[in-house]
Amino acid sequence: MQTFFPNIWIKVPEIYVPKQWTDLTKRAVVACDQYTSQPEYWMQVQAFVGQDPSTYNIIFPEVYLESGWESKRIENIQKNMETYVQEGIIQNQWNCFVLVDRKTSHTSSRKWLIVALDLEQYDYSVGSQTLIRATEGTIIDRLPPRIAIRKDAPLESPHIMVLIDDPNKTVIEPLFNTLEKYTKVYDTDLMMNGGHITWYKISDEESIQNIVQKIEILADKNTFIDKYKVKEDKGVLLFAMGDGNHSLATAKAIWESKKQLLNETERENDPARFALVELVNIHDNGLVFEPIHRVVFNIDIKSIIEEIKTYFQNQGSDIHIDTYQSVEDMKKNIKTSDITTHYFCMIYAWAYNIVTIQQPKLHLEVANLQSFLDSYLKEHTQAKIDYIHGEHTTEQLGTKEKNVWFILPIMSKKEFFPTVIVDWALPRKTFSMGESEEKRYYLECRKIK
Q: At what angle do helices 301-314 and 365-379 cross, to 10 degrees?
């Protein structure tokens, strides 16, 4: 059976999963970059897992970074991985795609397909035109601790979500109409309010070829040009990062270093060349985009108002700020942005404002606002910014003296791919996808050594 498809840079991975007798509620834990300010969460996980096999023992919760015992934990992670493989605690399912359905307290179903992507076609640098692309700036300083964890690890179990733009739902969704063809391997609850997960193994050649053919249609150059109305010099964007950007960048950095020591044949077959990812259709009904608002602290109100006007006028945009008597009044008058005019809300000292920017330079409201805030914070070092989920918390902070609160609209899913194609990347903290307990739970693994 063919396992590598170089025209779309997908590999059918060898998947390792826990033995059937394993208590999966203890086996699967949430992504390591969640609850980073709540060590008590991870202490509860540790107590719940106890001595049983669990991915808790082969990941590094980021809450413990800079704890002073990183090297010891990394050493234990690698030993646990070796033990799990050697003692058969995890077992090889051989080459397969994995179809997953996840239910949480917030959504009845989110569907995805687990595949491996070729890191040769991933480039997180500014202006990248590769098939697999970052959607936000990669902070290089965040990579070293992640590289230290992965570089000598025998296994990977990442939390990388990669999005495809499939509005007609041709790739993943139809697979749920033919579940009788696949092997149901797991059907289990997840710990710590993580919901429920159902896991199907797809290993027959006909199904794999059908999946690949559907993805190839999305990758067609002419289809891409017509779909996004772009020039021919634009590279096809097939796979866009949704979550885990720095995890994929870590895998890329390790591969770029390792391949220098390999000959051509070894490069083609080395498992470190690929990364396990969760492929999700951006139009999946269970994938919810939520806005992330901004609060700026310790500012001079008159100064920031004058500077925001000057900033956008210097960019060639017209800017208007209209003031209302209440938050209800403001929200009643806010309009939906379009390509020529952007709207967002600004609140300070109980003044409720709608900011209107005509002929904006960038594609999204959040991109234009963040470009101003980056400039403002650089000049006013006493000011600080925080990124807040939910309007209630933002309102409490934003109405205090010397604070200003910016409320942003929800980003349309339809704007995601066009924005990345045109503007290269989204500004940081553009949106959130679900609550912490809805994030990826580690279950399957893949050998990378």
A: 120
